[in-house]
Design brief:
Strand 7 and strand 8 form a beta hairpin. A 3-stranded antiparallel sheet has the order 1-2-3, with no helix packed on it. The chain contains no helices and 10 strands. The chain is mainly beta and about 100 residues long. Helix content is about 0%, strand content about 45%.
Length: about 100
């Protein structure tokens, strides 16, 4: 049995074809991805990757806008509503506290 010669497929992350690597889908970090599929980078959760015709391009993840009035910085620098930062003090989500300058509020 002889191994078949496989030409360079011409893309950076070709998927394994029947015999030779081929462009179309992608193989990245040991995982198979479909053409035009978007996925988190397995090595860096702050990066979002896209497979396009056998090429994978990764870019910083887009942060959704926060849905609360006093978000705090979370993973990847995104503003999140798991707690809040008010007047320089961190509070857990759902915590009650007195106003730092006006005890009547």
């Amino acid at each position: 049995c002889q191994q078949r010669y496989c030409p360079n497929p011409g893309c950076t992350h070709p998927a394994q074809g029947e015999c030779c690597p081929k462009c179309g889908d992608c193989r990245y970090q040991g995982q198979q991805y479909s053409n035009r599929e978007t996925f988190p980078d397995p090595r860096n959760p702050c990066q979002q990757c896209t497979c396009t015709a056998g090429n994978v391009v990764c870019m910083p993840r887009m942060c959704p806008p926060p849905t609360c009035t006093h978000p705090e910085e979370g993973l990847c620098g995104c503003m999140e509503c798991n707690g809040c930062l008010y007047q320089g003090v961190r509070y857990l989500s759902g915590a009650s506290f007195k106003h730092p300058r006006d005890p009547c509020q």
